[in-house]
Amino acid sequence: MHENTAQIEGRNTDRQSERSRSPLRIMILTRSLVTGGAERQLVTIAKGLHRKGHRVAVGVFYENGRFEKDLMDFGVPVYALGKNGRWDFWRFMERLKALVEKEAPEIISACHTTPNIFAMLLKPFFPRIPIVLGIRASNMDMTQYDPMARLTDSMVRRLGCIANLVIANSRAGAEYAMRHGLPKRRLMVIQNGIDTEAFYPDAQAGKTLRAKWGLGPGERLIGIVGRFDPQKGYPIFFRAATLLSAVNRGFRFIVAGDGPSGFSSGLRRLTMELGIQDRVIWAGLRIDMRSVYSALDVLCSSSVYGEGFSNAVGEAMACGVPCAVTDVGDSAEIVDGLGEVSPPGDTVSLKEALMRLLDRTRFEPALSGDCRSRIERLYSVEKMVNATEAAFMKTCGF
Questions:
Q1: N or C: which end of the chain has fewer CB within 10 A?
Q2: By C-alpha distance, which of 57, 82, 60 is closest to 72?
Q3: Are 236 and 345 within 8 A, CB to CB?
Q4: Helix, strand or coil for residue 20?
Q5: What is the pLDDT of residues 25-62, one digit of tens each?
Q6: In a 3-state reduction of DSSP, which class is residue 168?
Q7: What is the pLDDT of residues 361-389, one digit of tens each?
Q8: Virtual CA dihedral for 263, 265, 271, 275, nearest 10 degrees?
Q9: Spatial distance between the Cα atoms of 153 and 139, rounded to a whole number of angstroms
């Protein structure tokens, strides 16, 4: 008995539908899993894809990051590739190839500059495996970095033109990539998702930290969160803090982050030169970020370039903390009318934005709840994971 065309097409559609629901073998490559916003995003995506039934494995170039155990306890295997510094190339490449052969992924996803490069270097050895690169920055000023950083940044832009897909975590990052030659057809935007089950207003934890840091009941606490890097605009933040302190000595400032010792000591010297060293709390790298955000009156993001999607802004808003941001990356879009926006690099404008926002926290009682609601509505983990899954499935041809 012969089948008609409709029957055959129907059966093929059923098979494709069945395949589209079956799990993918996904390998994610990253530099490390130390504490940080980008690393938290990777862990969130890996867990989300694993929860949806996909076989996810993570390869880390440098081991012993705090999030490794978190992933492994969740059931996602983490493979330490033992990269021995910047110049460890050939032996590292052999270890990476061996891992791909062992895991036999159907798709390889990378994030950050160096993993992006090594992911593309795998292509000649595994030509049938789609490679997805990740872009987390926007308008970078590479003159602020060493020649090797400038070279690798240029390499990623060139390799992105032959990758199967490039995912930018911000609209600004995608626009920047296209201006630098990345074909639009290879690019898509999936903005970060904020885990609102981990980040929520925690008044008691915030109160405890404020007491630990010696804040009086009437003092207002302004925070900045992020690694010590030229793009984050820390000097602008401290100069704005100086202007605020001249207006009201009841302002205090907290820095939650770390970075190279030379950069850190330079920032500390700057606070002394500005005469605000007694107003600044150096909290260092923290793992209790919900408590830190909950201790703040407002958060400041003073980036001068390079920002894509600011995790700190999204996390703070999820904790009910309004944000004053510079117009870099997608920050203005994230805060929308619930925050204040100033031009990058403008100390006076940033100070005025912070003053306006501090006033609003007093006279707009719904502001905190509206901040959290915006993150829940527009930047959920579910939305990010679903979009990532769909992108991976499509790239694999399903």
A1: N
A2: 57
A3: yes
A4: helix
A5: 999 999 998 877 788 899 999 999 999 999 999 999 99
A6: strand
A7: 999 999 999 999 999 999 999 999 999 99
A8: -150
A9: 12
Percent of the chain that is helix, strand, coil (3-state, to 5)? 50, 15, 35
Q: Which residues contact 271 (CB under 8 A, 6 or more apart)?
A: 238, 277, 280
- How confident is the model over 143-199, as pLDDT tens digits? 777 776 776 777 777 777 789 999 999 999 999 888 888 888 889 999 999 999 999
Bridge partners (DSSP) listed for residue 311: none
Longest CA pairwise span in the chain (Å): 91
* CB atoms near residue 229 (< 10 Å): 16
Question: How deeply is 272 buried, as exposed, middle or buried, from its count of CB atoms within 10 A (0-12, 13-18, 19+)?
Answer: exposed
Whether 342 contacts 349, CB under 8 Å: yes
- Angle (CA) 304-182-184 rounded to 5° is 105
The answer to whether 320 and 369 are in contact (CB under 8 A) is yes
Answer left, alpha or beta for residue 329, where phi above 0 means left and psi between -120 and 50 means alpha: left
